[in-house]
Amino acid sequence: MNIEEFREYCLVKPGVTEETPFGIDTLVFKVGGKIFALTDINTFASINLKCDPEKAVELRERYDAIKPGYHMNKKHWNTVMLAGTINDRLLRELIDHSYSLVAASLPKNIKSHLGL
């Protein structure tokens, strides 16, 4: 998956916005104002994704390319190294999981407004 495919995959999800709140080098995707994915625009070497804590540990043990979230809460975030053993199908599943976790945590009125 390249950065354009990543962007397109994130942006087709309901209620997603694309922002650069940490500077022009960090591309951030949010749903309902909450981050579910971020990456470095220049290198696109890794993606930070939200993850269920138990699943996060399991993924880190199973895949060398999945590490505790860089500059994030390591209990709830993983950094997925794209040069590793992660194929596009798994990466899409991890993005979906992150999006779903964040969308599910939104207040009812925001979910309703976004059509979730």
Automatic annotation (TrEMBL):
Protein name from the UniProt record: MmcQ-like protein
Organism the protein comes from: Adhaeribacter aerolatus
Superkingdom of origin: Bacteria
InterPro entries: YjbR (IPR007351), YjbR-like_sf (IPR038056), YjbR/MT2646/Rv2570-like (IPR058532)
Alphabetical list of Pfam families matching this protein: YjbR
